[in-house]
Write a structure and sequence with these properties.
With 452 residues, the protein is an alpha/beta fold. The chain is built from 16 helices and 14 strands. The chain has 2 domains: 6-173 and 317-407 and 417-441, 3-Layer(aba) Sandwich (EreA/ChaN-like  fold), CATH 3.40.1660; 181-287, de novo design (two linked rop proteins).
Length: 452
Amino acid sequence: MRRLAPVTIVFLVLPLSPGFVASSQVEEIDIPPSPRTPQGRLVRDNEILPGIYLIDGIDAFLPAYDLRALGDLVGEAQVVGLGESIHTSGGYYRAKHRVFRYLVEEQGFRVFAFESPWHDAEQVREFVETCHGDAFHPVTRGLFGVWAAQSVRELVEWMCAFNQTHPDDPVTFWGFDIQQPWDDGRLLFEYLARAVPPHSPWFSEDIELCNGVGYESAYDYYTDPDGRAITEDDHQACLDGLARLEGFFNDREDALVARTSAEEFAWAQINLVGLRAWENAQYYSLRDHYGLAMQSRDEGMAYVFQAIKQLRNPDDRATIWAHNWHIAFDGQNIPGYDRARTMGTYLRDALGDAYFVLGLVGYDVSINWPGVGSGPLPPPTSPAHVEYLLHHEIERDFLLVDLDFGGTDEPFLATGQLYGLNGWALVPAEHFDVLLYLDVSPPMDALLWPNP
């Protein structure tokens, strides 16, 4: 593994505080074209190795100079995935707030889509758009508990404030997760009652057997010890009913749109796809087929994200908040979950290079997650791990890592070599475009349970 060049790098960083770059003095140098980089490339003075940039910090209100390299790498991408190696680590949440603010203010992004059930997340969307009330309530009621953090509350408060000063060019927020059969089933039945009243019971009879459809809310479902039970007969009946309805939708689309509207029809399709993704995910999970379960969920989330974007923000650039695994592309080549296809895989297939992926990783990472853990996680102990190498060889608090390393012949990570990352063994550049590295990520500042 190539180590830092001793003279040049020491000269650049020793006069400054660890992790700090004098951003107001950023200078750019154009490197002439070469056979290796035929278009040339831009080198910034916060680039300490080819493709590795010092970042000033994760405070969302820092000046944006140090993130300009990220803007260059994002380029014309229309969708940017922001990951995290584990939920409930607060450094990741604050870093994502900072990156999103930069993408909004400097790159024109206008959508933040969250890995949370979209129906409940509408509470957050309403707050961001209207600023009515206190952000505490939509954040704690409209999102999964792992996102109910003071840092996320501050993020949506900033989005609300941005909209007050940019009423003609607002940002928006919505969810895309499919873990909401109680809502999808109810909304689907309501649509059928409007669109085909005489035939609605014929369609709904089998769909009522889909897992979770008969419950009023997530609370009712998860507090019922029998809620997750799925028999083979009910599962098949559910899938048959959904297939029959999907065929009806395909055959009668024009008539259904005429009876309702194109928007209502599109939402009904979202309900149908979400319900099928949930049914399969739960069915496979109960039978220990976790790869198929995760793939079912991720395929559904990819569809819902693209469908909602098409309905609400077809021309806007969007950012996705999710786990690193969900946003990664080429998921079938990531060990674990039986090499399931990820949401990011479906998005890369659909969008190509217009989909850009930023994974968040850390060395000293702490979490605050009841039932999972509270406090620091064991750090990687082997130089075969990316986080270990960044901690011991770069020794800086915050880094942006271009996994192409600027096309250099001597990349920090050897081309095509397997490394440990997020607990997986993979070739990082085959699944992420860039990494944002935090040497320390403290636990999240929870709003729903005690903080350590």
